[in-house]
Fold this sequence. Notes:
Beta-galactosidase, Chain A, domain 5, mainly beta, 10-stranded antiparallel β-sheet, disordered C terminus, 4-stranded antiparallel β-sheet, single chain, 287 residues
Amino acid sequence: MMETKNTMLVYKADSVQVNLLYYGQRLLNPTELLANKQAALGNMLLSYQGQVYLQPALQITHADGNLSTKLVYRAHAVKGLGDNNKQFSFYLNDEHYNLAVTVNYNVYYQEDIIETWVTLKNSEGSAVVLNNLASMYLPVMAEKYYLTQFYGAWFNEMNMLEEELTHGIKTLDSKHGVRTSQVNSPSFMVSLNNPASEDHGELIGGTLAWPGSWQLSFQKTNMQSFTLRRGLTRLPRHIFFLMARPLKRPAAYLPTATRAKGICHAAFTVGQKIMCLKMATHQGQYC
């Protein structure tokens, strides 16, 4: 259970997997949610396997050519990083292969910011093909979803466009390399049930801490559920070798949840400051 001043992110782990139960405004009694066996919205990090019909957050071709990856829960850890900051790490392993995935969260209590990133370690004994690994995967449930994106170029920057998401997959991406926001921005807002308002409503905002090509993917299913996936632009082929250090994906930021658009803008500003400070301090740590 991860909490900021106004929001809460709740996962539940069993002997097999970690499922998202809730992301939104802080609950007075979250124990009732934990006791509800029907509350799960989806997997923490959906991998390509079996009958998965949603766009996966992780897709690998293993050393023996197998395309399926089944992640199982191994352990988790919580580390205090100060009075205002905690780090949560969830350790997952493939059920059949020597492949380890760690899903990390940094929670900034006062700022209402949740930072998340994923690391992958291959010990299969040979190279694997990494087809896709998102920095963040978030399932959501509502009746309607309204996406706000930002676009523009020189002398006409940061135009805002809102649209209702229909069934299928909506993808925003940039292949401009270091010109990350030259045409469109890796920041977004998704308003739940109603168009976004400045002073009321349920809204999820986010951005990606990466000075290069990126991709945002939003999928609405026939069951009215919704998944959000963020990460680097998908590459046709990415070989990850046995002796390489663990691969770290860029961090994604969730500045706010179930709060008005005006408040989300303020949280975005704080999130951008945190992101810039971290990128200046840890140059060269992303692959």
